[in-house]
Amino acid sequence: MLTHPQFDPIAVSLGPLKIHWYGLMYLVGFLAGWWLGRLRARRPGSPITEAQMGDLLFYLALGVILGGRFGYVLFYNFGAFLQDPLWLFRIWEGGMSFHGGLLGVILAMVWYGRKTGAGFWRLADFVAPLVPVGLGAGRIGNFINGELWGKPTDVPWAMVFPQAPDALARHPSQLYQFALEGVALFLILWWFSARPRPRMAVSGLFLLCYGVFRFLVEFVRQPDPQLGYLAFDWLTMGQVLSTPMIAAGALLMFIAYRRNVA
Predict the structure, then answer these.
(1) Residue 188: which of 259, 131, 142 has the closest Cα?
(2) What is the pLDDT of residues 75-90, one digit of tens each?
């Protein structure tokens, strides 16, 4: 049995200025996405140039942060917002929703695709392989904060999270998500997109794989206490939100290969 190291959530403190590890993980994700995006922009047929990657990142970052925060409030903790509306802006305390961030990114790509003439689907297929790096960094941020722990278990790598309301050993589900949503998803998409694929296929594979990975991890992740299980003593909000992603991803891949539009 392991014990969570209880990292100090504040990475740097300069007087009243406090820089949190959680925020730094987002910065790492954005910078890594920018660097990888510039590499992808050099490939023939890229919808954007290397120089445009900075502008695209700006709009994607807005989509992630605004969509992620509003999505968390809407899907997971609207009651906390009603009790303390300023809590909406305290992002460093945690509380971001991937599914909300995804909606924000989609809106950002729709807008930027129209602005540049790149088109939504070409842009979505370009961006999809960059996303897992940010997802992985975010899960490391969750682990540093000691939040979003898993269910009690007796596996050899079970971990006690002192922040939890008990002393039970639990699944380190943040690390499972880092391995699946971050590392595995990145390797799958980077390999898959290395060759020309029909339009929408890369986006479809992203939705399908993320949805499956997230759905599976939810079985060992402790549900949010303010929501609990939604049904059957196992169905979580994360699974409810991931199910349409799985269906949409499978449909996009079917349409992409059925039409065989390169």
Answers:
(1) 131
(2) 888 877 778 887 777 7
DSSP strand pairing (159-160 vs 2-3): parallel
Q: At how many degrees (to 10) do helices 237-259 and 201-217 cross?
A: 160
DSSP state of 223: P
For residues 247 and 214, is the Cβ–Cβ distance under 8 A? no
**How large is the greatest C-alpha to C-alpha distance in the chain, in angstroms?**
59
Q: Which of 17-21, 60-64, 157-161, 235-239 has the lowest mean pLDDT?
A: 17-21
Residue 127 CA neighbour count, 13 Å, CB half: 28
Specify the DSSP element, H or E, that contains 14: strand 10-14
- In sequence order, what are the beta bridge partners of 17? 14
Q: Are 220 and 176 contacting, i.e. CB atoms less than 8 angstroms apart?
A: yes
Burial of 217 (C-beta count, 10 Å sphere; 0-12/13-18/19+): buried
Which of 136, 122, 131 has the alpha carbon at shortest distance from 206?
Answer: 131
The pLDDT assigned to 202 comes to: 98
How far is it, in rounded angstroms, from Cα 40 to Cα 191? 12
Q: Residue 171 and residue 220: Cα distance in Å, rounded? A: 7
- What does the alpha-carbon distance between residue 155 and residue 24 come to, in Å, rounded to a whole number? 31
Which pLDDT tens digit goes with each residue over 219-258?
Answer: 999 998 888 999 999 999 999 999 999 999 999 999 999 9
- Can you tell me the distance from the alpha carbon of 76 to that of 218, in angstroms, rounded to the nearest whole number? 15
Backbone region of residue 97 per phi and psi (left: phi > 0; alpha: psi in -120 to 50; beta: other values): beta
Task: Give the DSSP H/E element, type plus range, for residue 17.
Answer: strand 17-20
